[in-house]
Amino acid sequence: METQIWKAYLELGFDHILDLNGYDHILFVSVLTAIYTVRDWKKIVWLITAFTVGHSITLALAALDIISFNPDMIETLIPITIIITGLYQFYRAVTPYLFTRGIYISYVLTSFFGLIHGFGFSNYFKAILGKENDVVLPLFSFNLGVELGQLLVVTLSLMMGSILVLWCKVPQKIWVMFLSILCVIVATYLLFK
């Protein structure tokens, strides 16, 4: 029984990230890691994990009804996190010093933005949780599925960036600027739709 619950919530978390109707999450993870290359895989894993820790905290607190937040405010804040991250990555791309630095700022921002995104997950998670008595296993499994889904998105984004930079000879700076601007534009649309 526990294996079935574990597997079900793992799949739900994984599918939730890859659901194209919720593409805001794909945008955030893509722009968050746009500035990195495959060689930076450790930094990327730490960034994605920082994000997962952030959203796991608020997801757990909301699932346990310890805290709640206005869903409309969260739906406004999520695109803002994408816009801020996109502008920050754009700035890092055009500022040579920050291109190779700024990872600690990224960890802090990513964890904080994870808290916001966790509230976005909470209504969905509470709906699928239903009247489940034990929330620990579903919460852990769901978050693990989210983490795996995010790592898949990052892998695909890195592959696309690598193809453009290494094979098509697009300068990495241009790729980062393009992806950052694209994500900012889409997030701005989400903010005002």
Provide a descriptive summary of the structure in words:
α2 packs parallel to α4 (71-94) and α3 runs parallel beside α6. The protein is globular, with a radius of gyration of 17 Å. It has one domain (2-192). It has eight helices and no strands. Helix content is 82%, strand content 0%. The protein has helices spanning 2-18, 23-32, 41-63, 71-94, 96-100, 103-129, 136-167, 172-192. With 193 residues, it is mostly helical.
Question: What distinguishing features does this structure have?
Answer:
mainly alpha; globular; 193 residues; 8 helices
Quick description:
With 193 residues, the protein is an all-alpha fold. It has helices at residues 2-18, 23-32, 41-63, 71-94, 96-100, 103-129, 136-167, 172-192.
Indicate the percent of residues in helices.
over 70%
Dominant shape? globular
Total domain modules: 1
Q: Could you give the order of the helices and strands?
A: HHHHHHHH
Beta-strand segment tally? 0
Largest sheet, if any? none
Beta-strand percentage?
under 5%
Mean pLDDT: 89
Number of helices: 8
* Backbone CA Rg: 17 Å
Distance between the termini: 43 Å
The poorly predicted ranges are none
Structural class assignment: mainly alpha
Q: What is this structure's SSE topology?
A:
Layout: H1 2-18, H2 23-32, H3 41-63, H4 71-94, H5 96-100, H6 103-129, H7 136-167, H8 172-192
